Amino acid sequence: xxxxxxxxxxxxxxxxxxxxxxxxxxxxxxxxxxxxxxxxxxxxxxxxxxxxxxxxxxxxxxxxxxxxxxxxxxxxxxxxxxxxxxxxxxxxxxxxxxxxxxxxxxxxxxxxxxxxxxxxxxxxxxxxxxxxxxxxxxxxxxxxxxxxxxxxxxxxxxxxxxxxxxxxxxxxxxxxxxxxxxxxxxxxxxxxxxxxxxxxxxxxxxxxxxxxxxxxxxxxxxxxxxxxxxxxxxxxxxxxxxxxxxxxxxxxxxxxxxxxxxxxxxxxxxxxxxxxxxxxxxxxxxxxxxxxxx
Length: 294
Known about the structure:
25% of the residues lie in helices and 24% in strands.
């Protein structure tokens, strides 16, 4: 049986049904999923049952996997997940207990509530993220997505000309610093140095122009820092108008895939005394945005 793709909006977000992702993935289904991602940027699969290994195996069909940056910036804590190819997007500590409000990883993870793009702070940034829900709270904890291709299309021509060719410096430490989360060792800081990325890029799957911004973007290279940051803030404000944003309300068994090359996302608040256990695998892009089509 072939998969069914049901758009949520004409060009952004779709549901995919008729497939069990725990089973071997046929090439025709793999290609249909990739085509849906290229068109809609965010796709949702409900009622899946996946182990960590099965989630990783599924992700491998779409490219090489980034090791989790959590390991680089949390070297001194106990991690509950075995594989470094899967990121622990939960409020649980290494002993599967709800983290204390002052826990280091919890404070670091609060930056996920800022608009961001996964792994833009790496020289070869993230391509697709695949987040699977093991346990979700009854209320809150939604994930919001912003369509950066539509946001770019809606910019005035003068703004498009202004930002054409600009490069921003991206750093995970910049996003954490916005929340005054700064207690990292010299070794941790050195493990993830700042990298340059284009502000406007061409999305390879659709050949559409898209913004490439969000909270890891610190400043514009060659521009006074205050001016560059104001420009980035203006672009984020523009791109997160309600007409460009979709909120996903999680259900246990959901697997959501989004394309980091043309979206931003952020987590929404929830009662952190309740368990929220989601796990993410992110594939690597082919190269730095500077080495790809502008």
